[in-house]
Amino acid sequence: MYQTYFGLTKEPFSMTPDPAFLFLTGAHREALAGLSYAILGGKGFVVLTGDAGTGKTTLLTKMLRSIPPSRATFSVVLNPLLSPDEFLEMALLDFGVKEVPASKAQRLVLLREFLSQSRKQGKISVLVVDEAHKLAPAVLEEIRLLSNFELAETKLLQIVMAGQNELATVLNREDLRQFKQRISVRLTLPALSPLDVEHYIQHRWTKAGGQAHPFSAEAMAEITRWSTGIPRLVNVLSDNSLVLAFGEGTKSVTAQHVTEVASDLELRARGPHRATVAQASVRAGKRVNGEAIGQPAAVSFPSIERYIPEASKPSLLARWVTKIRLGEVRQG
Prior knowledge:
The chain has helices spanning 26-40, 56-66, 84-94, 104-120, 137-146, 166-171, 177-181, 194-207, 217-227, 231-248, 255-264, 277-280, 316-325; strands at residues 45-50, 72-77, 124-129, 157-163, 183-189, 267-269, 287-288, 291-292, 304-306. By secondary structure, it is of the alpha/beta class.
């Protein structure tokens, strides 16, 4: 919608997990390296956790593309709301098995044959389970038993489980202690720091064909405050703020644009506004009031709750459509 207006070739804040836009913080680099290490090193079980929207699926996609097909074969289960039998069937289908037997015993024999054949070909077989925090206990037990496929010297199946922070709570249950004992590598993706938020936006802007992003320092502070460092929320706030700026015919995104979008998204920051401009938009060598600013102090992000507007008003989409109808949108 606004790409041409801002001189872009792609949409910078798309919600799809495109690894080309992946912004690697130190924690992301560590997690990516940990995933590759666990898989190529035959560690068996690896668990990746993080809050919703921190980039787990994008990181998994990057990992899948970074390991060549000659080294590994993958089965990716994206929908965890399956029965144990359905889960086993899905795993086989995504490994490329076209005819799955109806009998569970035959399915297990077929899976072992597939894993053994892949091993003979020098390939590592990897089962990747996304949204794993939603797995039923019976499916978790099925996954644990699949890890029993092994040779004397190595596991035949490497298992990667990614999920929200609730997954850690699930795995701490007493009845899943056998499962937890098999986890060899645990990785976590935290929220972005205020400095990371600015670097994240500039990174995606550059990847989309732009140069210097149009967000003011005050707008960056508001994005940091409302998003609480969650990349998905940064994308939503940034994208809709650009829509508003485009609709108004301005090349700069202001704090007012971000605040208006946050209201439309029904977000509310609990507590006082703590993310200052100096904290949220620090650049190397930048000065505030004549003083050089270095790495900002840690910021406690406010939690998010539903925003209840004091008075009803048209939604962001409705106001955007109205602007189009009234001819208020000036094309760039």
